[in-house]
Specification:
The chain has helices spanning 5-8, 21-62, 64-75, 91-97, 179-182, 213-218, 262-266, 281-284, 365-368, and strands spanning 113-128, 131-138, 148-151, 155-162, 171-172, 191-197, 202-207, 222-228, 238-247, 272-275, 287-289, 294-303, 308-312, 317-321, 331-334, 336-339, 343-350, 355-361, 372-377. By secondary structure, the chain is an alpha+beta fold. Strands 10-9-12-17-14-15 form a 6-stranded mixed β-sheet. A 5-stranded mixed β-sheet has the order 11-19-18-13-16. Strands 2-1-4-6 form a 4-stranded mixed β-sheet, with no helix packed on it. It starts with a helix and ends in a 9-residue tail after the last strand. The structure holds copper (II) ion. Copper (II) ion is lined by residues 136, 168, 208, 210, 216, 221.
Length: 386
């Protein structure tokens, strides 16, 4: 607000070329009164502005230390501590000794009914060489949970046993079902069974849906279910399932296992990103194919929050069922396909020549944080075989 509006809005003086002396006397009187009124109000506004300014300055004068502290807290939030890439000295040795999550597609069980049992368990797992994390995960598997493989039209009977310390649940994206009934919380020590028909082909995420879901997924409660189309797919030589996810840690996890850093999860600043739960595991222990093979990747991005931009270096996604839509023909000859958090996609990659072909999330911060593996085609020189 300007304290001096009258100075910039003063009315111009009237032209003195006509009228009687009495008129001018009255006009001068009115003008004088107007100017006086405007001046008075200007004075009042100036005084008011000065009082306001003094009031605003007063607390700072009375409590300078507190006011300064408040300003500092507001303006300088501490950065979240990152433990990205922090591993012990013997990391290479530990990476070699690590038993990788088996990415090979399991067979489809026979019959119309497929019974699946999972037991949730609080357990320490490694998410990178020597990097330990307190998960809420799956007994016998860690994170991700087991791959469920069915054919379109089969009925899945899911039994969830909660061996953890707090309530959990399981949400299958492949199911059309009332979630308040099927995906309900299961108390520690309890188990719960529900059925659904796998009526939509594709690759789908499953995960714990207990609140806060961000924390439950970030702690490892996710996996993939593959629903093969009833009509079948072109035959391929190799099939692998990859579940992409990220980890948010409250410590470097070398001496003590880390737990979830919720602030980092909320601000999407992971320490590690992984395929099948462990950074770079398929770099040390590559997936394999023979020259001329077509390899099918069934990919889910579990998040909890980040997407995966799937790409095979040196290859092409010859067939890409984008978004896992298998009711339409695939796209052909594409380079990179987005797999959204909570989504899936299927890719066929034919590689004629022997070599080491990295598969990555082409958002390259993810590669730096561990979401990269190798497809070893044949026995290229300069690598160890596994
Ligand atoms: Cu849970």
């Amino acid at each position: 607000m300007s304290a001096y509006p009258a100075r910039t809005h003063r009315p111009p003086a009237p032209a003195p070329e006509s009228g009687s002396g009495a008129f001018w006397a009255v006009a001068a009187l009115l003008l004088g009164l107007t100017l006086a009124a405007v001046g008075f109000f200007a004075l009042m506004m100036w005084a008011d502005a000065r009082d306001s300014r003094d009031d605003a300055a007063q607390p700072a004068a009375a409590e300078p230390a507190a006011a300064t502290q408040t300003a500092a807290d507001h303006n300088t939030a501490l950065p979240l501590a990152s433990f990205a890439g922090v591993v012990p000295d013997n990391a290479a040795e530990l990476a070699e000794a690590h038993k990788p999550y088996d990415a090979t597609m399991p067979p489809i069980p026979a019959g119309d009914l497929v019974k699946v049992q999972m037991t949730l368990k609080d357990m320490v797992v490694e998410v990178a060489p020597g990097v330990k994390y307190n998960t809420w995960a799956f007994d016998g598997h860690g994170a991700p949970g087991p791959v469920v493989h069915v054919r379109e039209g089969q009925t899945v009977e899911m039994t969830l046993k909660n061996g953890g310390a707090i309530p959990h649940s399981i949400d299958f994206h492949a199911a059309r079902i009332a979630p308040n009934v099927a995906f309900k919380d299961v108390a520690p020590g309890d188990s719960f069974t529900f059925r659904f028909t796998a009526g939509d082909p594709g690759v789908f995420m499953y995960h714990c849906g207990t609140k806060p879901v961000l924390a439950h997924i970030a702690n490892g409660m996710y996996g993939a279910i593959v629903v093969e189309p009833k009509a079948g797919l072109p035959p391929v030589e190799n099939e692998y399932v990859l579940v992409a996810s990220e980890w948010y840690m409250n410590g470097d996890a070398i001496d003590e296992p880390a737990s979830l850093d919720m602030a980092k999860a909320r601000s999407m600043e992971p320490d590690w990103t992984t395929f099948n739960g462990y950074a770079n595991q398929y770099v040390t222990h590559p997936l394999t194919a023979d020259p001329g093979d077509t390899t099918r990747f069934w990919v889910v991005a579990a998040g909890p929050t980040l997407d995966t931009n799937f790409h095979v270096v040196g290859g092409m996604l010859d067939r890409a069922w984008v978004n896992g839509d298998m009711t339409n023909p695939p796209q052909n000859g594409v380079q990179t396909v987005l797999v959204p958090a909570g989504g899936g996609a299927v890719f066929d990659v034919k590689l004629a020549d022997e070599g080491l072909y990295p598969f990555v999330s082409h958002a390259f911060a993810h590669v730096d944080l561990g979401q990269v593996g190798l497809l070893k085609v044949g026995n290229p020189k300069g690598t160890t075989s596994h």
